[in-house]
Specification:
GO terms for molecular function: metallopeptidase activity. The protein is α+β, with helices and mostly antiparallel strands. Helix content is 24%, strand content 35%. The N terminus is likely disordered.
Length: 453
């Protein structure tokens, strides 16, 4: 664990009060300018990031950012403007600009605030605020300790891509003319290390990182470096495999990208533009009947926990997939109106997503698959959201007789996402908690693996 220095003074609530007061003044100005509806977003962020490489400090960056966004509606005409300047004349000009833009836009029947009766009535923080009073010198020491632990652990680690430590605080207020005022504060801290094993044409790079809302939940700097070294060294002397159709096991940190493709395909923007391979799929069996996917916006220390979405709509726990069948889409109020549906409280994106498992950890999945490919890295953007066609460069390990046989790279895994979803044979319980998408490793029964002919 990393030592956490307690904050001597936490002024975050006072700063939220100030942002809330600004939002109310702006809403009043919008009303005075004749807007029928208005919404205001105010944010403030602070951060520290350090990077080291080969025992030397490369960058130390301290950041402070803020932003004010104003959106007005004149009937069904919408205008938006933003500023980072809190002076009164700048705020006044921002409102005037938003109103001027609205007067020149076309009517859009789907525009407007989310319905007033959907606004969140209660708000909670879900234990998301854990400032880390870390000075630059201490952050540098942690980054160096991570890199040194990895470099010193294995003689084959001859180079480094660097180590980093980052810490950030974020405050935000969303308010609208329904009378809703939502306040949120959160922190996030990260330690990462990337190392290079071997030399010349035989070099292999890999890394590891830990990220959490509270610094005490981070893995130790040394353990991150050690794991980065192990991963890089394990990739030395890779081979290719013969082109064919094989079981493919996506490690947990890679598997969540498959769930991300599902979410993108059932999100409102793709649907009302008719640019999704999952059009008209609610109620359709997409996955095996044992698999379910839940949205869980109220998780303690969840990366996307919130009582309300980006429009102030109250969030709720609800299934996205139940017993393999798609239960709903992922909608904000605008996309919902375009589709003739109701918002699912997903303006701004999904909250925490949990994928059910039916198997043990990664070792058990490897033993059970017998022969096939374990994917630990994906490259490229070869996913067609309209057709569901999937083709990605990949690296990982060949599995033979239920055990890792050797590393592989320079290959491509291909299929169609619909068939991949339906062909999932197992989801492990080795859940990667470093994201708002919480999934274990995913075994797809058969995919095309393109290697040597």
């Amino acid at each position: 664990m990393n030592a956490v220095i307690p904050q001597t003074q936490d002024d975050s609530r006072a700063r939220l009060d100030a942002l809330a007061e600004i939002s109310q003044r702006l809403l009043e100005r919008c009303r005075a300018n004749g807007a029928d509806q208005a919404e205001v977003s105010c944010s403030e962020e602070r951060g520290l990031n350090v990077n080291v490489r080969m025992g030397e400090v490369e960058t130390v960056e301290s950041t402070r950012d803020r932003g004010i966004g104003v959106t007005v509606y004149f009937g069904k005409r919408k205008g938006s403007a933003s500023t980072a300047d809190l002076r009164e004349d700048s705020l006044e000009a921002t409102v005037a600009q938003a109103c001027a833009i609205a007067k020149y836009t076309e009517d859009d029947p789907a525009s407007g605030l989310a319905d007033a009766e959907l606004m969140a009535r209660e708000q909670s923080e879900f234990d998301a605020w854990h400032p880390w009073a870390i000075e630059a010198d201490r952050a540098i020491d942690l980054a160096l300790a991570s890199e040194n632990a990895g470099r010193e652990s294995d003689a084959r680690i001859e180079n480094s891509d660097g180590a980093s430590v980052g810490s950030s605080e974020s405050l935000s207020v969303y308010a609208n003319s329904h009378g809703f005022v939502g306040r949120e504060r959160s922190t996030q801290h990260t330690i990462g290390c990337a190392l290079i094993a071997g030399r010349g044409d035989e070099m292999q790079r890999d890394g590891w990182y830990s990220t959490a809302l509270a610094a005490e939940d981070l893995e130790s700097a040394a353990s991150i470096g050690l794991r980065a070294a192990q991963r890089a060294a394990a990739r030395l002397a890779p081979r290719q495999v013969a082109t064919g159709a094989y079981p493919v096991l996506f490690s947990a940190d890679i598997a969540r990208s498959l769930i991300g493709h599902l979410i993108g395909a059932v999100s409102g923007g793709a649907l009302y533009r008719r640019a999704s391979f999952l059009l008209d799929s609610v109620g359709t069996q997409l996955f095996p009947s044992w698999l379910s996917i839940e949205e869980q916006p109220f998780l303690r220390r969840g990366f996307r926990s919130s009582s309300f979405d980006a429009e102030g709509v109250a969030t709720r726990e609800s299934p996205l997939v139940r017993e393999g069948a798609l239960q709903r889409y992922v909608l904000g109020s605008y996309s919902a109106r375009k589709l003739g549906l109701q918002t699912t409280a997903n303006a701004g994106g999904v909250h925490n997503i949990a994928v059910s498992s039916n198997a043990g950890g990664l070792d058990e999945l490897i033993a059970g698959m017998g022969r096939g490919l374990l994917v630990t890295e994906l490259m490229g953007q070869g996913v067609n959201n309209v057709t569901g066609d999937y083709s990605r460069g990949a690296g990982g390990f060949w599995i033979e007789n239920g055990a890792i046989a050797y590393p592989v790279d320079g290959i491509t895994v291909a299929g169609n996402l619909k068939a991949m979803f339906a062909g999932i044979e197992a989801v492990g319980n080795d859940v990667d908690l470093r994201s708002h998408i919480r999934s274990g490793s995913i075994l797809v029964g058969k995919m095309t693996v393109a290697g040597t002919d």
